[in-house]
Design brief:
The structure is a single chain. With about 60 residues, this protein is an all-beta fold. It is about 0% helix and about 40% strand.
């Protein structure tokens, strides 16, 4: 079951983990346009922050 679909800018807290959805897209290419609202993620666990970019160009 899906309880919540995230969009860019959404933040959720799950079992002490903060999860922030950030935009993941390619500039000037058709296959990953920003309007699809696909995500990368920023996770914060015990004060340490991790970034998973998803499939994206350098932004």
């Amino acid at each position: 079951d899906v309880d919540h679909l995230m969009k860019p800018g959404d933040m959720v807290h799950l079992d002490g983990i903060e999860i922030l959805g950030v935009p993941a897209y390619n500039e000037g290419k058709k296959f990953h346009p920003p309007e699809n609202e696909w995500l990368g993620y920023v996770f914060t666990v015990d004060g340490v922050t991790y970034y998973h970019s998803g499939d994206t160009d350098f932004l």
